[in-house]
Amino acid sequence: MVAPTTQPTTSASRGRSSSVSSYLYRHPRLRLAGLLSAPMLWLVVLYLGSLTIMLVAAFWSTDSFTGALVKKPTLSNFHTLLTGQVYWVVALRTLGIAVLVTLIDLVLAIPLAFTAAKVVRSRRLRYALVIAVTMPLWAGYLVKGYAMQTMFINNGVIDWMLAPLGLKGPGLGLAATIFSLAYLWLPYMVLPVYAGMERVPSSLLEASGDLGASTSQTFRGVLLPMIFPALIAGSIFTFSLTLGDYIMVKIVGGTTQMFANIIYDSFGVANNLPLAAAAAFFPIIVIICYLLAVRRTGALDNL
Amino acid sequence: MTFSNRTRWFLSVVTMLILVYVYFPLLVVLVNSFNSSKVFSWPPTSFTTDWWVKAATNDGVRAAVLTSVKAGLGATFIALLLGSMIAFAVSRYDFFGRESVSFLVILPIALPGIITGIALNSAFRSVLVPLGVSFGLITVVIGHATFCIVVVFNNVLARLRRTGTSLEEAAMDLGAGPFQTFRDITFPAVRSALVAGALLAFALSFDEIVVTTFTAGPGIETLPQWIFNNLFRPNQGPIINAVAAALLIAFIAPVYLAMRMSDGPSRVAQVGAEP
Fold this sequence. Notes:
heterodimer, A: mainly alpha, MetI-like fold, 2 domains, two-stranded antiparallel ribbon, globular, B: MetI-like fold, disordered C terminus
């Protein structure tokens, strides 16, 4: 059904409006079609069409001699992935990394967002804090990757800072990957959590305090349940971004592999589109399951 | 709400530590770009501006910046057009599938870049290449525009919802046709949202590497690709560092402007940028 929400109560155009203009005015459906046709052509035909081609390609195979695509339906790619032990190891490692990255970002984002939304009284300082954390979002992915490399590399900045204590940093590897990803995605967690905290009426926190609850009791009993959907919303970002990342692990991960590296290598190195497409099912399925699981918390409205 | 001094003190310290965690590595990149050592060494023992000069005169860097700017402008142009069209349709009309449209706009950025990249690559290979269009800058622009639409859409939609329709209705009651109403009322109302959306779309495109990797033709190298490719080459460290430092500075101004122009900092949450 098309019903213009803007239609004024007075009837058709008065004065000297052009005939095209008044024709469009009387035909809201036509206006809507004009607005939507180009974007839908782009998003549905080009984007969804491309996704469909890729997902269908997961059921193709490649000729083992020529590498050419064999467009006969087969489940062999899924069989390869499900029976290969290395794929399981990398998939579980990637999920583990995603969980840890999400937890680190939660631990950092909650006090920061709480301070900005509820403790700081000046509005300017509040915005300044949020912008200060959001700004690096745009500092450039590779710039931040490079920054993290200088931190974690052997004899890098972390080693230099720990040297007086007689300690050494973890170097490039799994730990560096986890902290770098948490570093990269922190703004994605802070913003929804901050927005969620801002929506909690301060009067509720005050009431809880007036009734004798300590700060930590108020935090656990009142605030945390109320911002839970916002926390989940942030975790959707950190989770799905981690599942799809293959570049940061190349920069700071040493020899560590993540699942997206498997997709990338199948496609870019082995030139095996069907295997890459089949592997791409893993992050897609995990993200969809995650979205379905958290849908009832109301997290999706907090995105 | 009042907090005990201990809580306040604790929270301020934690906040400061997080800000240090966020900014210290970036500061290191800035400082290190003046480090005169040819190989990575920290802390710097002497300083020079040589690397900035070398980076600015490096042919590879210049070509890559030019490619990135072209791709960014192309993608931003398409995203502005398509994103604001969808925003108008969604905010001003009630139609079947409106919710799905919003979902569809977000999808290219919600799914990992590698999936969007491979999907576009295989589609281009099986559709465009047989038609005689080869991989090049145009395929990068198509890829970038696809995930940039959402930033323009979000900014314009928020503005349209906030401004409402009463001014437009008043204009029409006073005899203005749809075109005149758009030119004199609607467009001025959304102009700064369009600028904010365009700045963010450009920043998003300029920073993108994954979709780029899968959609760029031979000989096309954007700045992020140049950085990534040179990261693993010997003796390129100081120049990369200077480029990274320059990018850091170049990004801050437009993004700060975009944040001022969009509707408050929490709006940016819905931008959902993807590397």
